[in-house]
Amino acid sequence: MHSPGRMIRNDRAPTISLDGTWAFCADDAGIAGEIVVPGCWEAQGYPKTLDGPVRYRRTFQLPAAWFGQRVVAEFDAVSYASTVSCNGQQVGHHLGLWTPFAVDLTAVLRPDQENVLEVEVVKPCHALTGGEYPLRTTLAGFLPDIATSFGGLWQGVRLRRLTAGICDLCVDADPTTGTLSVRALLILPLAVEAGVVRVAVHYDSALVVEYAMPAMVDRPVDIALPIENPRLWSPRQPALYAVEVQLRDGDRVLASVTQRVGFRQLACDGEKLLLNGEPISLRGVLSWGWNPDMIAPAYTPEQARAEMRRVRALGFNLIKLCLFVPNQTYYDLADEEGMLLWQEWPLWLPEVTAELRARAPAEYADYMHLARHHPSVVIYSLGCELDQSVDHALLQQLDRVARRAVENVLFCDNSGSGEAYGGLAVDFADFADYHTYGDLHYLDPILDHWRRDWQRPRPWIFGEFCDSDGFRDRERVIETNGGATPWWMTADNPTHIWRPEMRAVLAAPERLAAAQPGFAMPELIEIAKAQSLMVRKATLETVRKRRAVQGYVVTGLRDVPITTSGIFDDFDEPKCVADVFRLFNDDAVLCLDVGRSRIWQHGGDRPERLDRYCWWAGEPVRLNVILSHAVRSLVESGLLTWQVTDDDGRLLQARTALVERPLPAGQPVELCVLEFDAPVRPTPQALTLGMQFEGVGIRCRNQWPLWVFPQPDLCADAVLLYDPAHLLEGEWRAYSHPCQSADLCAWRAPVIATVLDEPIRAFLHAGGGVLLLQTGDGPLPVRRTPFWREAIKLLPPHPLWQRFPQRGFADLQFFGLATDVSFDTAHLAEHLPGIGAVTPLLRRLDAREFTMTDYLWTAAVGAGQLIACALRLQGGAGAQPTGLKRNVAGRFLLASLLDLLHDGALHAQRALPP
């Protein structure tokens, strides 16, 4: 049995492919049939819950010239436990999903007869479904949590005749010295006592250098070849050298192996990230290896190349292979295409048994041998979001195994960091890696939270973050599948047993019908796309303004059964226009920021956050313009042009400024402070700020929405504030008059309330208008949910949205309003007897549970009108503007809601008897 590093290689050796049709049976399940190799059985109509044992069987005959020679069967990958037999005799056993192995058949072969090769396979299974090999003990990664574990001979199988060969081949390209190092062990025929090793290096088919030395069985090859002016491998120029190692006996080539390599180095310089000594911005997208047709991540060259080019078109230069290992084709194509790879080995939520602890180091050594020669693989992580079950000794041992295998790359022991997931308080990583999944308004605070200047300076690279759910075109998925619901959207997907997200997918049609979103499916899809684009743009621009942030990985590459947060949908189509996405996902990006302010409160200074998206009409707009770039040439100056237009395309402002100072790459720098007076109009307006910057070797542009509101006339004497528990800050008294329950008796104008006690209920039933502000768990039933994540905000047609500017979805004018509370509208009647029909104003459709809640609604209660609002009109959460004074959109929305109530109250008052 040979592991990847110990496998004897010889590209000249004759082979017989065993790919094709095999007999397949699972006696315990009463299954018998045929199966195609390579491929897993789940993708070929066999049950997803079948874990084995299953038996693969095929016959073969050998050429006469092969008899008396050494013959091995090579398996590129089998999942998971495989026992190989030939002609009824067991010849090998292997554990592992991802690594190749070989077994020697020589002793059991039958000359001039039909030979029978059998492989018994058992795959990993979730603990809830039983099985011999529980998932969490097998390094199965995350694919089983997306849809299913996979089993079988999912990569190629062949027979090889070996008379000589090369094993333990390691070729290292050192860009700092321009040296190619070649190390190997030689397998010579018994009749050959000594031979010659010839190493030839080619670039673009031209011979660069060659070297020869005597070859002996007991003498390892260890050669260092200087390469004059080596071409460096990079995404822009993926320069590959072909290193051919030959074992010769005179003029006869006994064995030959060719390995492609590239000179490149990813390194850290303090907080800065350098590729080949130049600053680089890593812009990655997260892949889980999901393909509903193949299931196992075995790519054809066409599939791999197409995926990488789709990704590059959107500005990405890196793909993170999250908790899975692809076939070698994927690595090879990444080398050719210049696509950087982050290889994360499949350690996630492990059950660290004694067997796993003993086996993992050797398995990790085999993993490293799969990827170490590929210049595209520049980052390795040992696992993902590991808790304390992976202890210091095990993680350090795996780290040492990985680092021994390769240089000039970066390592992360625990992607996401142990301190964030209850794991180790220390790490062995070359960079800081956090998985920041959160609402937009908490992004800046959590980045501040992780920043500690007393730690050693190192780059930040977010290994996962910035997810944003879309909405699945279920009808098109079914239509594309020939009118049938695909297996991964049915109970045939075994993850529904343990993942609530999958159970929600199964129930989606019924839940959506009950939710009554009020929008057609195409409308929901487009709303979700617009919202996701906005969230991702705001998120990426936020991190690009941080000096330590040198890279990120966006979750994720494509939609999967349990989430629709892919950059690409179920049809591999992008959810946004590539040119638009590259505005904020490229080597050079323009960003905006706003100044800092403080407020003296309760005897001391406190941060006063400003609204960067919403402004009062006629007041100065002041924004910092930031350039974040990783362009190779040194930018000494440039020309900045900006313009402001309204929704009708009319030009309101335009300026040009010459920037004359060094703009070093690899860190954010301020270009200027942009200032103009917000235009004055009687109604709110949406503006677009467009900007272009051009310097030597750099050109970029970007645009942002801004909203301008007229100052509302909020008269404190016209509105009562009923807040007996003092839940609201004192600033509310500037816009309303505090009152007691007795004051409600004769009042007919609107009341702002924080409770629904008996006096307020009586006021409502008598015809009063109440704006209920609720940001907690009572008095009405609510659910605690994220505002931006995992949900789509819906704005049903209503006069309110003619007053408050919007473009059909919740854009950043809602940044200061976002909340984690939404009303469980379906259960309102249980808590508010006498309530009439509810008119929703702002809704939350959960993109994973397919349920509906509401942030804002109105209903008749008795003879009165109630508007219930869970939005944070006063802001103050995370990076939201501080208070009603600063929260422009919140104050204007407050005035708009009171206007609606005032109109309703007047009508109610006129309806009362004299």
What's the gist of this structure?
With 914 residues, the protein is an alpha+beta fold.
Labels describing this entry:
single chain, 914 residues, alpha+beta, Jelly Rolls, Immunoglobulin-like, TIM Barrel, 5 domains, eight-stranded parallel beta sheet, eight-stranded mixed beta sheet, 48 strands, 18% helix, 34% strand, globular
Would you write up a description of this structure?
This protein is an alpha+beta fold and 914 residues long. Strand 23, helix 4 (354-371) and strand 24 (377-381) form a beta-alpha-beta unit. It has 16 helices and 48 strands. The chain has an 8-stranded parallel sheet with strand order 25-24-23-22-21-28-27-26. The protein has an 8-stranded mixed sheet with strand order 40-39-41-42-48-47-46-44, sandwiched between helices. It has a 6-stranded antiparallel sheet with strand order 3-2-4-9-6-7, with no helix packed on it. It has 5 domains: 15-162, Galactose-binding domain-like (Jelly Rolls); 176-261, Immunoglobulin-like (Sandwich), CATH 2.60.40; 275-474 and 529-586, Alpha-Beta Barrel (TIM Barrel); 591-709, Immunoglobulin-like (Sandwich), CATH 2.60.40.10; 716-911, Rossmann fold. The longest helix has 24 residues, at 521-544.
